[in-house]
Write a structure and sequence with these properties.
This protein is about 35% helix and about 20% strand. By secondary structure, it is of the alpha+beta class. The chain is globular, with a radius of gyration of 22 Å. Helix 2 crosses helix 3 and helix 13 packs across helix 14. The chain has 16 helices and 24 strands. Strands 1, 2, 3, 5, 13, 14 and 15 form a seven-stranded mixed β-sheet that branches. Strands 18-19-17-16-22 form a five-stranded mixed β-sheet, with helices on both faces. The protein has two domains: about 260 residues, ATPase, nucleotide binding domain (Nucleotidyltransferase, domain 5, 2-Layer Sandwich); about 190 residues, 2-Layer Sandwich (Nucleotidyltransferase, domain 5). The structure holds adenosine-5'-diphosphate and 5-O-phosphono-D-xylulose. Pfam families: FGGY_C, FGGY_N. Keywords: ATP-binding, Carbohydrate metabolism, Kinase, Nucleotide-binding, Transferase, Xylose metabolism. It is an enzyme of class 2 (transferase).
C-alpha cells in the first residue's frame, strides 16, 4: 500500500504523521519542538522538520506528502533565496498600527468604510496577524530589508519549497538553489495573506503595493486543491518512490494548507460542523459554500482546502493561558485540571479576561489580562485555576456567537488542539458553550488533513477525477450539553472593562 505523510509546521512544534493512503491507518509519527517567540528564524522549522521526520522513521517510503502550517507568518526572501529577517508570526502584534493605517487608507479616512472594503476585497478586516500588515510594518520600520525583498512566502510555502530541494544559494541542503518561481502555496493559506481574494482565486497586487510600496516580488503560485506543487528532493525525503506502487520515482508534494484548513480536512468537516481548536491560537471555524465579508472583523473569511470557504474566529489567548496558569500555580497539566474542577462553575465570581498577549478577536492588540472579583473567598488555587480555563473558553464562545451572527448553522461541535486533552477543559467547555461537544480521538488533525490531501494528490495523479479519500474520523467521546449561563454572564459583564 502506498504511504503518505502529513506535516504540521505549527507555532510550537513540527508534527508528522505517516498514513496508509487508502485506509488512512496511522503507520508512524514523530514531532519536534519549535522555539518560543513571535519572530522566528525559519531555519528552526527546517531543523524541526528533519528531526520530526527522523522521529517518524524517515520519509523514504512515502509516495506523497503535504505540509499544513501556522498561517500568516511573513517569510521574506532575497534574490538568493536567503531569509532576510526572522519571520514575523501570526501572533506578533507589532504591525497593529500598520493594520489601522491600511484600513484608514482604503476607506479614505473612514475606518468603518475601510474595514468593510478590506472584508469585501479579501474576506477579512485587517488585524496584525495578517501578512500584509507585516509587510507594511517592514516597509516603514526596516526599509533596507523591505528593499531587498524578492519573494514573500508563508511558513508552509517556504517549508514545501525547501523539501523540494530549493533554498539559499550555496546551501548544501538546497541542491536546486534559489529558484523563487518554484515557490507554491494553496488557496487556504493564501487567503490569510490580505493580498489574495479566495472568491476569485487571484492575488491583489494593488493591495500588496499599498503595503510594500511595490509589486515586483514573487508570490507563490497557488496550486489547485489536489495538484502536486513539486516533487520532494531525494536528499530530503530519502530514496525516490513511485507514487502508485510505493517503489520508484518521486515523492509528490501536495499544495499544503493553512493549519485550520488542514484540520478541517483532517476532521472531514462539512457545513454545519464547527471545530474549536485550543492550540497556541484559539480557533472556532466552520466550512461554508461561500465566504462572507464581515466588516466587524470578528470573522475571517478564508478558504478551506477543498474549494469551500472557511470562516474563522481566532483568539491569541488559548492553550498558553493554561500554560500560564500552570506556571502561576506550579502544577502540571493534571494538577491544573484537578484544581479547576474543585471550584464551582463561575468560580464564585472570579473572572479572568485572558488578554495575556493582547487580543485579536476582539481586536485589542495592546490589551492585558485582568482578574475581576478577587475576594478572600476566591483567593484560592482552585478558583484561580478555574477562572483561567473559563476565561479562555469564554473568548472562544464569543467567537462562536460571531459565527452564528454570520448565519453559520451549528449542528456538530468538535474540540481539538493540545489543550482539548485537559479533563477540565472537556468538563467546562459544555458548560460554557451550552452545547454537546464531540472529542475526536486524540490526534494531530492538521497533520492528518495534510496526509489526507497527500493521498488525494496521489489519487489524482492516477485518475484526474479522483476525489479526496474517504478517511473517517472517530468521535471518541460526546460530552452532553451542561449549560451554566453564569459563566458567560459574569464574563460579558467585565470583558470590555479590561
Ligand atoms: N493536557 C493538557 N492540558 C492543557 N494544555 C495542554 C495539554 N496538552 C497539551 N497542552 C497545551 O497545548 C499546546 C500545544 O497545542 P498544539 O495544538 O500542538 O499547538 P500549536 O498547534 O499551536 O503548536 C501547548 O501550549 C500545551 O501546553
Ligand atoms: O492565525 C491563525 C489563524 O488565522 C492561527 O490559527 C495560526 O494559524 C496558528 O495556529 P496554531 O499554531 O495555534 O495551531
Amino acid at each position: 500500500m502506498p504511504l503518505v505523510a502529513g506535516v504540521d509546521t505549527s507555532t510550537q512544534s513540527c508534527k508528522i504523521v505517516v498514513r496508509d493512503a487508502e485506509t488512512g491507518a496511522l503507520v508512524r509519527s514523530g514531532s519536534a519542538k519549535h522555539p518560543d517567540g513571535t519572530e522566528v528564524d525559519p531555519q528552526h522549522w527546517w531543523d524541526a522538520f528533519q528531526e520530526a521526520a527522523a522521529a517518524a522513521g524517515g520519509l523514504a517510503d512515502v509516495a506523497a506528502l503535504s505540509v499544513g502550517g501556522q498561517q500568516h507568518g511573513m517569510v521574506t526572501l532575497d534574490a538568493d533565496g536567503r531569509v532576510i529577517r526572522d519571520a514575523l508570526l501570526w501572533n506578533d502584534t507589532r504591525s497593529a498600527p500598520s493594520a489601522e493605517a491600511l484600513i484608514a487608507e482604503l476607506g479614505d479616512g473612514n475606518r468603518a468604510a475601510g474595514a468593510q472594503a478590506w472584508a469585501d476585497a479579501v474576506g477579512s478586516v485587517l488585524v496584525a496577524s495578517l501578512t500584509i500588515t507585516k509587510l507594511r510594518w517592514l516597509r516603514d520600520n526596516e526599509p533596507e530589508n523591505a528593499a531587498r525583498v524578492a519573494a514573500v512566502a508563508l511558513p508552509h510555502d517556504w517549508l514545501s519549497w525547501r523539501i523540494a530541494g530549493y533554498g539559499p544559494a550555496g546551501d548544501p541542503t538546497a541542491p536546486l538553489g534559489p529558484q523563487l518561481d518554484k515557490l507554491f502555496t494553496d488557496r487556504s493559506d493564501a487567503s490569510g495573506t490580505g493580498y489574495y481574494d479566495a472568491s476569485t482565486g487571484l492575488y491583489r497586487p494593488d493591495l500588496l503595493e499599498r503595503a510594500l510600496g511595490r509589486v515586483d516580488v514573487v508570490l507563490p503560485r497557488v496550486v489547485d486543491v489536489a495538484e502536486a506543487g513539486a516533487v520532494a528532493h531525494p536528499t530530503v525525503a530519502g530514496s525516490a518512490v513511485d507514487h502508485s506502487t510505493g517503489s520508484g520515482s518521486g515523492c509528490l508534494i501536495g499544495p499544503g494548507a493553512g493549519d485550520n484548513a488542514g484540520a478541517s480536512l483532517g476532521l472531514g468537516m462539512t457545513p454545519g460542523d464547527i471545530a474549536i481548536s485550543i492550540g497556541t491560537s484559539g480557533v472556532v471555524s466552520a466550512v461554508a459554500p461561500k465566504r462572507t465579508a464581515d466588516g466587524s472583523g470578528a470573522i475571517n473569511g478564508f478558504a478551506d482546502a477543498t474549494g469551500n470557504a472557511l470562516m474563522l474566529a481566532v483568539t491569541l489567548n488559548a492553550a498558553r493561558v493554561l500554560d500560564a496558569a500552570r506556571e502561576v500555580l506550579d502544577v502540571d497539566f493534571d494538577g491544573l485540571a484537578e484544581l479547576a474542577l474543585q471550584a464551582p462553575p463561575g468560580s464564585d465570581g472570579l473572572v479572568l479576561v485572558p488578554y495575556l498577549e493582547g487580543e485579536r478577536t476582539p481586536n485589542r492588540p495592546d490589551a492585558t489580562g485582568t482578574l475581576h472579583g478577587i475576594r478572600l473567598a476566591t483567593s484560592t488555587r482552585p478558583h484561580l485555576a478555574r477562572a483561567y480555563i473559563e476565561g479562555m473558553l469564554c473568548g472562544l464562545a464569543d467567537g462562536l456567537d460571531a459565527l452564528r451572527a454570520q448565519g453559520v448553522s451549528v449542528e456538530r461541535v468538535m474540540l481539538i488542539g493540545g489543550a482539548a486533552q485537559s479533563p477540565a477543559v472537556q468538563r467546562i467547555a459544555p458548560q460554557v458553550f451550552g452545547l454537546p461537544i464531540g472529542i475526536p480521538e486524540p490526534g494531530e488533525y492538521v497533520a492528518d488533513g495534510a496526509a489526507r490531501q497527500a493521498a488525494w494528490v496521489l489519487a489524482v495523479a492516477d485518475d484526474p477525477d479522483a476525489g479526496a479519500p474517504a478517511w473517517s474520523t472517530t468521535i471518541a467521546t460526546t460530552l452532553d450539553a451542561d449549560p451554566k449561563p453564569v459563566i458567560r454572564e459574569q464574563y460579558g459583564a467585565v470583558r470590555d472593562l479590561s
